[in-house]
Design the sequence.
């Protein structure tokens, strides 16, 4: 008889995102469940990666990434995020932002450490914490703007609290944390001597004139903040797996050691392509991206409202949580499957992002689609009218 597997994996089933993606494929539906960017890749990214392959950038880079990409990220961090980072000692390139987050968890957390997650949360963050036997503690945010108070934050802190996870702009909520909220998190982090893991992968997807604030740029926060980002979403290259973390050198050394152990390095020619793109794409590319996606948000949310699936209108990223409580079903999964069967549009049951029953009233949709696919999704959803 075969031995048992690792018991820690017992609760880490495939995510509802992958479950709904599979169900959608079976009916040849429109997949608004998975956060895959279907918009075109900027030509400069592909052309640079092809040149990298042709010019021999096909062997291992250093464990923490190529010099070209680390330098480009450090320059971007200084100019856009307001954070000074030494590309030699404080930048680690990894296999996507998820790889960076996992390496940070493995490097800095020990079993039993408590970590604060804002709810609704990104399911991968929860799974990564559970995989290293950290204990999640939840800060419930209130719809539709996903706000929280100092009391909400303080009441879940205990002597075992080690870190706070902040995802801004957020998945699944689309929340962009305000400067006041980030100041509060920073103050609490300093007072309780906590790490702050900030997932900023959607930093350019900002709507209605909002600006991105990087928590590490706030006073006294660079030494305790692990800033995580990447280019999967910005350049529509989710399959390339190019992400990074920026941290104080003593933490980056530990994160880099885990990155070396798990991934050796991210794909070398793809690192080259991203490095060139960071250097060559103008600021207008990023502002244009925000404008384009705000238009997608507005069109899609208008359709949701029209058919009675009230959206919590996102402030950033490219996800929206819609209240689907009017649809038949006892829970979010029932309602998501009903929606797929009725319209051919797939979303993710809200329970994937909440600990309690509140998630049952929501479905998360991703609107990072071509205009043609998004228009077709809207047309199909209109079958729910009446």
Sequence:
């Amino acid at each position: 008889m075969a031995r048992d597997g690792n018991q820690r994996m017992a609760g880490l089933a495939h995510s509802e995102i992958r479950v709904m993606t599979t169900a959608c494929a079976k009916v040849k539906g429109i997949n608004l469940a998975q956060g895959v960017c279907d918009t075109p890749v900027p030509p400069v990214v592909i052309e640079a990666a092809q040149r990298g392959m042709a010019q021999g950038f096909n062997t291992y880079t250093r464990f923490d990434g190529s010099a070209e990409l680390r330098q480009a990220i450090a320059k971007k961090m200084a100019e856009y995020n307001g954070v000074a980072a030494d590309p030699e000692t404080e930048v680690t390139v990894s296999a996507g932002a998820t790889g960076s987050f996992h390496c940070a968890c493995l490097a800095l957390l020990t079993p039993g450490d408590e970590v604060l997650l804002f709810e609704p949360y990104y399911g991968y963050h929860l799974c990564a914490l559970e995989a290293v036997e950290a204990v999640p503690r939840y800060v419930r945010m209130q719809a539709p703007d996903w706000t929280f108070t100092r009391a909400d934050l303080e009441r879940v802190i205990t002597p075992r609290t080690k870190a706070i996870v902040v995802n801004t702009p957020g998945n699944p909520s689309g929340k962009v944390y305000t400067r006041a909220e980030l100041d509060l998190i920073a103050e609490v982090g300093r007072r309780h001597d906590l790490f702050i893991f900030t997932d900023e992968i959607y930093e350019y997807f900002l709507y209605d004139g909002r600006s991105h604030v990087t928590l590490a740029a706030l006073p006294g926060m660079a030494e305790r903040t692990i800033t995580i980002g990447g280019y999967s979403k910005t350049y529509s290259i989710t399959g390339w797996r190019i992400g990074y973390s920026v941290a104080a050198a003593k933490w980056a050394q530990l994160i880099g050691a885990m990155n070396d152990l798990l991934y050796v390095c991210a794909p070398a020619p793809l690192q080259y392509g991203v490095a060139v793109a960071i250097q060559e794409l103008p600021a207008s590319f990023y502002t244009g991206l925000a404008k384009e996606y705000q238009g997608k948000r507005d069109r899609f949310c208008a359709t949701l409202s029209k058919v009675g699936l009230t959206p919590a209108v996102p402030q950033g990223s490219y996800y929206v949580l819609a209240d689907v409580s009017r649809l038949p079903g006892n829970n979010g999964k029932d309602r998501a499957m009903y929606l797929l069967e009725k319209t051919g549009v797939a979303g993710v049951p809200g329970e994937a992002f909440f600990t309690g029953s509140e998630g049952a009233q929501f479905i998360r949709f991703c609107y990072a689609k071509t205009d043609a696919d998004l228009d077709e999704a809207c047309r199909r959803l209109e079958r729910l009218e009446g």
